[in-house]
């Protein structure tokens, strides 16, 4: 049995401390079957290495459970970016125009806010309104989109 401490870190990540060791930044990932929203959660590093597998959220202390549920709720409502049409910088704001699985979308990020790396090929972007967008695989984007991102 692990003694864990989980707290919110960024929009979609958690700091996890196991048995008093140094805290590790993780992303919660639902495992199959996805119909069990409170069961089978993998906490993975930004390099996609599993740190902890949670069979049921009910086995955690309340603070850890609430932190994980909060991040999972945010991740459940992601817009998935399929193309970046433009990124324009204006004063302290970056204006984005993208295509998503849900349709075209325009948003803004602070100039200092860069996409968060989820793993080697995935990015997470939080706009100034708190909405989350995910780029599943940067390598599968067209050349124009990749050029704008890098």
Task: Output the keywords.
150 residues, mainly beta, 6-stranded mixed β-sheet, 5-stranded antiparallel β-sheet, 2 helices, 15% helix, elongated
What does this entry look like structurally?
This protein is mostly beta strands. Helix content is 15%, strand content 46%. It contains two helices and eleven strands. The longest helix is centred in the middle third of the chain and has 15 residues. The protein is elongated.
Number of helices: 2
Provide the gyration radius in Å: 17 Å
Strand order of the largest sheet: 8-7-6-11-10-9
User: In percent terms, what proportion of residues is strand?
Assistant: over 45%
The poorly predicted ranges are none
Strand element count = 11
Mean pLDDT over the residues? 87
End-to-end distance, in Å? 43 Å
Q: What does the largest sheet look like?
A: 6 strands, mixed
The helix content is: 10-25%
Overall structural class, as computed from helix and strand content, comes to: mainly beta
| Secondary-structure element series | EEEEEHEEEEEEH
Q: Gist?
A:
By secondary structure, the protein is mainly beta. Helix content is 15%, strand content 46%.
């Amino acid at each position: 049995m692990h003694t864990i401490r989980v707290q919110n870190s960024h929009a979609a990540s958690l700091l996890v401390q196991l048995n008093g060791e140094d805290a590790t930044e993780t992303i919660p990932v639902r495992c199959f079957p996805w119909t069990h929203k409170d069961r089978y959660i993998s906490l993975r590093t930004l390099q996609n290495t599993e740190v902890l597998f949670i069979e049921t959220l009910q086995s955690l202390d309340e603070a850890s459970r609430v932190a994980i549920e909060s991040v999972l709720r945010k991740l459940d409502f992601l817009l998935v970016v399929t193309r970046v049409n433009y990124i324009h910088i204006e004063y302290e704001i970056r204006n984005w125009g993208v295509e998503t699985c849900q349709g075209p979308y325009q948003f803004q990020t602070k100039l200092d806010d860069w996409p968060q790396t989820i793993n080697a090929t995935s990015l997470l972007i939080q706009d100034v309104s708190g909405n989350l967008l995910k780029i599943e695989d940067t390598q599968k984007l067209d050349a124009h989109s990749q050029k704008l991102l890098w």
